[in-house]
Amino acid sequence: MGNNCSQCGKSPAIYQIAGHPLCLDCAYKAEQINNMKLTQCMRDINWLMGQMESSVGMPGICGPRYDIPKPPPVLNSGDMTFNNINIQKSTIGAVNTGNIGQIDVSLSNIKNGGNEELASILKEFTEALLRSVELSDSLKNEILEHLSFLAGQATLPELGRKKSVIQTLLSTIERIVSNVPALIEIFERLKGMFGSL
Asked: Quick check: helix, strand or coil at residue 128?
């Protein structure tokens, strides 16, 4: 296309989205954001269908639900820096960086929404979780998946939040980290922030 990317200004633009020339990296990020929005819409539709079935007392009448895609695991051997979360290769292990990326995007949205304190505690807990040697990679991945959902919920208006799901996920995380002193102290603050949303 001959121009530099309209977002980063560094790389040559090879894509165009909504009239904006973008480099490969910025176009990929824009596509990730669109996919996250689509996934949230699928979750919302599934929830609404469940609510309709519940209100008439006839489960299953709305038909099949959307199969929510999980972010693909991406393993990286080097240090990674997202917009908000810093990860060193010595601490990352085999965790799903797709979930970390979703948390990172939500952190930016939470900050932009004016809740800097929640964003700060969520970042602190995520980085402490990744550094933890007490938890297995599978438990870390489970918590990251829950955190990804919770962070997404924090970006929604109050009426759009699934409060019962939020409480269930917070209880699950609390149970997993209850014997890890470095995590439980931060998590208690994080839980309090979600409780005040």
From this structure: helix
